[in-house]
């Protein structure tokens, strides 16, 4: 029986452990420390923890000032608020001067669930990805989240890390080594390549098993760093497969699908004919209240639905 | 030690010099933020030439006091001070806002030595100053952080979020100075939002407050000394005149950000030169 963990829980523990090793790590929150799990850091290092109250923009600007004085701040809120409310200070005060603030967006995506559209961030990857100097990390499971939590402290610039409140199985063993900017082939296959991020890596692996029953062998790639994108991994697949697929719990505009489309559409980098690209995700819509699994099904992001959509697209490409 | 008469005379001379450089670097025929840079000139002079612990030869010194120009469009006043201190050459002021210049239109810490952060979008500077002050507390440093805000900038809600954070954290090492010139880009700062009674509002937010004439050098120095003697964050509301020192600009919103002609430039520089001669 696989262990199922919400990535935010793995983050909370890893952040507390990081605090013990790195005295320059400080943590800011905006009245959500139970949800974001920074409560563990708060209890262990109260002098390096700041709850600013319900003022996310003030929080990230404060974090920027701390970073300018040599600290490594982790600023936390729901993904929707930390990217949406704070866009200007993130852009002007953090991304522009490349200050090493780590922005942690918790409860991201549709699987935020019952709170509905106001809380379901489906645009956060796009918003952060377009900012110069900003790295965007979206781990697939608890193991990768733990490693990414520590790795982003060493990254010299700002990082946006996207976490969820949806239990996902451990996909990696203890030997795995996360590296910012490195995509990971989770499963090899010769017919189609599926690029997935966050919770959708698990769903894409499910889909690949179902596709294999129909003799469609899918390579599944975990894109846990959306920026800087592992362009070599994308180009390699573009040179081998007639069909690439992206799967994300995010708008199909501007996120992982956008990043892959931008990469393969550059003729200077093409190794051969350009493959078709199927972008799976939320199709330019807002979310709504519901259970996480109900919402994934509504937006065709379950394993069987992904398999079905890939199968159809593959048939079209094959003619 | 309060500022001595000879120190005050030096500071007034510096301020006059600052004003001349502010207008000269902007020049004619291009839109520049004359009004707010000139209203802030005396305050910025007092900070850099009287109050702040600052080593111009080492602008990255960790123990230095920090100055954040939250009303980022008035950064020419800060550029003039940094140049006169020798942080970068005075000749470089003429490159203001030109392609390839280290002197960007708004404060940019990666471009300009002595600039401590990036501002320009209004309302974000006081939070940033708080962050620097908190970092000092965490790292056991005793530096102070001075933040200059515009009164129009106080329309931005984040300023008040920050004011609540400063008070909650008892950041006695934070001093906010409000350059209350009464005008914003279009018209009076009272248009669009109410600000009065401004001192009461800061006091109600938990700050020590003092209101002064922002062009009276003795009053500015005294207020800065008072501010750093408080057990709470301190706000100095400095009543100023937008465009102070140039009769053409004074009290006129249209010179918030506007081009002037060669003739107007000459007239302004002559006026400022005469004022400088008077102080000398």
What's this entry about, in short?
The complex is a heterodimer of chains A (319) and B (280). With 319 residues, chain A is an alpha/beta fold.
Description of the structure:
- Chain A is built from 13 helices and 14 strands.
- With 319 residues, chain A is of the alpha/beta class.
- In chain A, the strands form three sheets. In chain A, strands 3-2-4-5-7-6-12 form a seven-stranded mixed β-sheet, with helices on both faces.
- In chain A, α4 runs parallel beside α6.
- Chain B has 280 residues and is α/β, with parallel strands linked by helices.
- In chain B, α1 packs across α4 and α5 runs parallel beside α6.
- Chain B has one domain: Rossmann fold (3-Layer(aba) Sandwich), CATH 3.40.50.970.
- Chain B starts with a helix and ends with a helix.
- In chain B, β2, α6 and β3 form a beta-alpha-beta unit.
- The interface between A and B is medium-sized, with 30 and 31 residues.
Summarize this structure as a short list of keywords or feature phrases.
heterodimer, A: alpha/beta, Rossmann fold, 2 domains, 13 helices, 40% helix, 20% strand, B: 280 residues, alpha/beta, 5-stranded parallel sheet
CATH architectural name of chain B: 3-Layer(aba) Sandwich
Question: Helix and strand string of chain B, N-terminal first?
Answer: HHHEHHEHEHEHEH
Beta-strand segment tally of chain B:
5
- Could you name the CATH topology of the largest domain in chain A? Rossmann fold
How many domain regions of chain B? 1
Give the low-pLDDT segments of chain B: none
Quaternary structure type: heterodimer
**Uncertain parts of chain A:** none
For this structure, what is the CATH class of the largest domain in chain A?
Alpha Beta
- The CATH homologous superfamily of the largest domain in chain A is called Thiamin diphosphate (ThDP)-binding fold, Pyr/PP domains
Strand content of chain A: 15-25%
Helix content of chain A: 40-55%
Pair with the biggest interface: A-B, 30 and 31 residues
Compute the gyration radius of chain A: what is it? 19 Å
What is the succession of H and E elements of chain A? EHEHHEHEHHEHEHEEEEHEEHEHEHH
Rounded to an integer in angstroms, the radius of gyration calculated over CA atoms of chain B is 17 Å
The description of the largest β-sheet of chain A is: 7 strands, mixed
- Molecular shape of chain A: globular
């Amino acid at each position: 029986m696989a262990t199922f963990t919400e990535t935010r829980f793995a983050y909370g523990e890893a952040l507390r452990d990081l605090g013990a090793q790195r005295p320059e790590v400080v943590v800011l929150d905006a009245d959500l420390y139970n949800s974001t799990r920074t409560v563990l850091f708060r209890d262990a290092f109260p002098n390096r923890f700041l709850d600013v109250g319900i003022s996310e923009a003030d929080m990230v600007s404060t974090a920027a000032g701390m970073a300018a004085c040599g600290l490594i701040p982790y600023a936390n809120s729901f993904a929707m608020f930390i990217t949406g409310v704070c866009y200007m200070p993130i852009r002007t005060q953090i991304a522009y001067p490349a200050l090493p603030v780590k922005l942690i967006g918790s409860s991201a995506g549709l699987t935020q669930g019952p709170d509905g559209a106001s809380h379901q961030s489906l645009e956060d990857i796009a918003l952060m990805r377009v900012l110069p100097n900003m790295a965007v990390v979206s781990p697939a499971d608890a193991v990768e989240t733990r490693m990414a939590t520590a790795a982003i402290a060493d990254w010299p610039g700002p990082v946006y890390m996207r976490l969820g409140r949806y239990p996902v199985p451990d996909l990696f063993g203890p030997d795995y080594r996360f590296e910012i900017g490195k995509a990971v082939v989770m499963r090899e296959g010769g017919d189609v390549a599926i690029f997935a991020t966050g919770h959708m890596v698990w769903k894409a692996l499910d889909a690949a098993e179902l596709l294999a029953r129909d003799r469609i062998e899918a390579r599944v790639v975990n894109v846990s760093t959306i920026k800087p994108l592992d362009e070599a991994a994308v180009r390699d697949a573009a040179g081998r497969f007639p069909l690439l697929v992206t799967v994300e719990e995010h708008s199909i505009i501007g996120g992982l699908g956008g990043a892959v489309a931008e990469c393969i559409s550059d003729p200077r980098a093409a190794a051969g004919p350009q493959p078709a690209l199927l972008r799976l995700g939320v199709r330019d819509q807002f979310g709504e209240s519901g259970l996480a699994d109900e919402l994934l099904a509504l937006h065709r992001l379950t394993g069987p639905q992904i398999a079905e959509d890939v199968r159809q697209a593959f048939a079209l490409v094959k003619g | 030690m309060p500022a001595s008469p000879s120190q005050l005379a030096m500071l007034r001379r510096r301020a006059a010099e600052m004003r001349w450089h502010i207008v000269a670097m902007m020049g004619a025929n291009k839109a520049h933020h004359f009004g707010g840079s000139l209203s802030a000139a005396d305050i910025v002079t007092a900070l850099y030439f009287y109050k702040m612990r600052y080593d111009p030869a080492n602008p990255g010194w960790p123990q230095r006091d920090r100055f954040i120009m939250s009303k980022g469009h008035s950064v020419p006043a800060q550029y003039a001070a940094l140049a006169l201190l020798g942080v970068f050459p005075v000749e470089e002021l003429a490159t203001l806002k030109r392609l390839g210049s280290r002197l960007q239109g708004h404060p940019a810490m990666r471009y300009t030595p002595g600039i401590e952060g990036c501002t320009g979008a209004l309302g974000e500077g006081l939070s940033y100053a708080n962050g620097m002050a908190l970092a000092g507390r965490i790292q056991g440093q005793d530096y102070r952080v001075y933040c200059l805000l515009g009164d129009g900038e106080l329309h931005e809600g984040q300023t008040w979020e920050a004011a609540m954070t400063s008070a909650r954290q008892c950041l006695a090492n934070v001093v906010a100075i409000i350059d209350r010139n009464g005008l914003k880009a279009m018209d009076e700062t009272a248009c669009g939002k109410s600000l009065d009674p401004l001192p009461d509002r800061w006091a109600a937010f938990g700050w020590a407050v003092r209101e002064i004439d922002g062009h009276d050098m003795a009053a500015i120095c005294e207020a800065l000394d008072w501010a750093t003697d408080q057990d709470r964050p301190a706000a100095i509301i400095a009543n100023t005149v937008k465009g102070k020192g140039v009769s053409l600009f004074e009290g006129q919103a249209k010179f918030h950000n506007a081009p002037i002609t060669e003739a107007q430039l000459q007239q302004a520089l002559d006026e400022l030169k005469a004022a400088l001669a008077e102080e000398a």
